[in-house]
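REQUEST FORM: STRUCTURE PREDICTION
Request ID: SP-0412
Submitted by: Lab K.M.
Chain count: 1
Length (residues): 175
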Amino acid sequence: MHGYELRKRLNLMLGWGRLLSFGSLYPALKRMVRDGLITETTVSTTPVTRRPRIVYEVTEEGRLEFKRLMSEAGPAAWEDDTFGIRFAFFSRTDMEIRLRVLEGRRTRLQERLDRVQNDLSRTQKEVDQYAAELQRHGVESVEREVRWLSDLIDAERERPPSAPLTPDGEQPRTI
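STATUS: Completed
RESULT:
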């Protein structure tokens, strides 16, 4: 698909909290073309539009690299910057990897929550009501994500290994 459509689809997948800008998309596409992970084809346009469209397609090397990246389950997989993207593609990930990523994310958030709650008890007297309210909101958000992750982990353990969570309840297609 072309860059504009790709951006729309990725933004839809990633949700409102994480929007992909053209300023980060196009350099990433160029880098992937250079690395042989995708190809680009120029498509002629109608006289109404002046610029030709560039259509991108994943190569076999790109599919293999995607599979390799999705099989990694170390600390980078559960960090704030990468967890949402990885989660968006969980239907293409083995159950064992999904569980390790979910458990790692939950552990990381629980550690963060413990640290913040400890700091809050020491600084509560030093902040005004708005700063305290913002801190409370942050704690509640992390607690809510920890509960969500725990529910996902429980559901994942109850699911047959070949049946990841999919929105339509069907088996995911392989890449």
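NOTES: The longest helix spans residues 129-158.
Reviewed by: T.R.
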